[in-house]
Amino acid sequence: MATVAEQLVDLLVQAGVRRLYGVVGDSLNPVTDAVRRHPKIEWVQVRHEEVAAFAAGAEAQITGRLAACAGSCGPGNLHLINGLFDAHRSMAPVVAVAAHIPSEDIGTAYFQETHPDRLFVECSHYSEMVSTPEQMPQVAQIAIQTAIGRSGVSVISLPGDVAGMDVPRRRAEITLVPRPPTVRPGEAELDRFVEIVDEAERVTLFCGSGTAEAHDEVMAFADRVLAPVGHALRGKEWIQYDNPFDVGMSGLLGYGAAYEAMHECDLLILLGTDFPYRPFLPDDVRIVQVDIRPENLGRRSRLDLGISGDVGETLRCLTPRVRRKTDRRFLDRMLRKHADALERVIAAYTTDVERHKPIHPEYAASILDEEAADDAVFTVDTGMCNVWAARYITPNGRRRVIGSFTHGSMANAMPQAIGAQLPERGRQVIAMAGDGGFSMLMGDFLTIVQYGLPVKVVVFNNSSLSMVDLEMLVAGLPPHGTEYPDVDYAAIARAAGAHGVRVEDPKDVRSGLREALDHDGPALVDVVTDPNALSMPPRITGQQLTGFALATSKMVLQGGVGRMVQLARSNLRNIPRP
């Protein structure tokens, strides 16, 4: 006879799950034992369940397959919640197994009792408890289908005693929809979309993660309507490379002319983005939004037209039907503005960088971009590491850049690197970690060492929570409670059994990074960086400027842009000479 736990594990394997990330516990014992005995799935022992959920979410994003994590009853599965929120908001298909107290004691305030089927409702599309063996196949089927079909999290709450119960002999089979369907807008919506585009004189495209797999379609449409193309942070890896219409990024981490292009057009088309920052969106231009999720339409701004559909399919239907535009003046003006804007800030990482101590983090990020592999996966901590990745990591269609870009959690980079590395040990995976984020979940660096993962952790060590510094300055407050004592993280890495390099002199940045990247195994580079290196958004209000003036009179506020200035210069060659 098979047990409920064995049946669950077998169904997960049928659905493509190859690893179950978690921390063992008595209520979870039937599940971990079932994993131990199954030849096609591996138990990945982490030190903290939050890391398990982050790792599963990263694996799902990198592979496009279902991933899974697990936690024991009460406090064990509660630790999953932050990583599950991130996976869910990143649209990563993940099934979480939340072990539960003995079924007869549910509702009695038993030791470690919580109600996981209720707790995880907000960070999942599906959260249900299995109460009997007969219930398992249906609940597992729905959970798996929901996670894959709706691109998010499903949670199965499973009491430990139920997990150990026998089930009928017959093997449960699962019917899978391997990919969400392609959604095409209706003819009436397409006709109206064509009318709006043809009526416009100045069109701008603003792209998010929904443009994944639609790069060529976006470029073809931009070429037909001569539109500048900007992007949100989650759209950067999909849309910035091979883009002669690129005008950069808008938002709090933005750069270039994306903001101007969005505000000076007469038609803004939002493609696959649920961009959350309303102050960066215009309110006096026509706006069309295309999104696979209809609930996102009009959530952030007033719309003249909302299109529910897949971005690639929608543009394939739309592009041949719109009239080709011939007036390049708006596009060319935005391309020049973009290049000029980038030229003005390159001094931050090109002036005296080999003599500036502490090291400019911009400089370290630009060197990392040059030394990293063309197909590297970058996992990026929230905070200033988001800024350095947004402005210095150059996409090329093969690299991946993932982070907690929607949930905004600290400490995500190293755990996500675990999930990105395990499916493909030969691929270069680099965690860009802040010292605050790294130290928060530092215990799981031991997981990287335990499994011999060749993850490279680059710690931008400025002994502070510098993004919070910036937020306080904007509010007119002096930074408080944001400083850490100096810590040698390279020494900690060496003590843990990994390769550790500490870089304090800018002349050693390239050699230190190269040494770690060439190392065959886990490595950490502790780069001691300037805590005063902050970044300004592309537009700030007078009130924010006043806040800076009240809080400080001397700060490093330039923000470099790395090789993106070269891309902007090359795009200027597309402007016809008079």
TrEMBL record:
<dbReference type="GO" id="GO:0003824">
    <property type="term" value="F:catalytic activity"/>
</dbReference>
<dbReference type="InterPro" id="IPR012001">
    <property type="entry name" value="Thiamin_PyroP_enz_TPP-bd_dom"/>
</dbReference>
<feature type="domain" description="Thiamine pyrophosphate enzyme N-terminal TPP-binding">
    <location>
        <begin position="3"/>
        <end position="114"/>
    </location>
</feature>
<dbReference type="Pfam" id="PF02776">
    <property type="entry name" value="TPP_enzyme_N"/>
</dbReference>
<keyword id="KW-0786">Thiamine pyrophosphate</keyword>
<dbReference type="GO" id="GO:0030976">
    <property type="term" value="F:thiamine pyrophosphate binding"/>
</dbReference>
<dbReference type="Pfam" id="PF02775">
    <property type="entry name" value="TPP_enzyme_C"/>
</dbReference>
<dbReference type="InterPro" id="IPR029061">
    <property type="entry name" value="THDP-binding"/>
</dbReference>
<keyword id="KW-0670">Pyruvate</keyword>
<dbReference type="GO" id="GO:0000287">
    <property type="term" value="F:magnesium ion binding"/>
</dbReference>
<dbReference type="InterPro" id="IPR047211">
    <property type="entry name" value="POXB-like"/>
</dbReference>
<protein>
    <submittedName>
        <fullName>Pyruvate dehydrogenase</fullName>
    </submittedName>
</protein>
<feature type="domain" description="Thiamine pyrophosphate enzyme central">
    <location>
        <begin position="191"/>
        <end position="318"/>
    </location>
</feature>
<dbReference type="InterPro" id="IPR011766">
    <property type="entry name" value="TPP_enzyme_TPP-bd"/>
</dbReference>
<feature type="domain" description="Thiamine pyrophosphate enzyme TPP-binding">
    <location>
        <begin position="381"/>
        <end position="527"/>
    </location>
</feature>
<dbReference type="Pfam" id="PF00205">
    <property type="entry name" value="TPP_enzyme_M"/>
</dbReference>
<comment type="similarity">
    <text>Belongs to the TPP enzyme family.</text>
</comment>
<dbReference type="InterPro" id="IPR029035">
    <property type="entry name" value="DHS-like_NAD/FAD-binding_dom"/>
</dbReference>
<dbReference type="InterPro" id="IPR047210">
    <property type="entry name" value="TPP_PYR_POXB-like"/>
</dbReference>
<dbReference type="InterPro" id="IPR012000">
    <property type="entry name" value="Thiamin_PyroP_enz_cen_dom"/>
</dbReference>
<dbReference type="InterPro" id="IPR047212">
    <property type="entry name" value="TPP_POXB-like"/>
</dbReference>
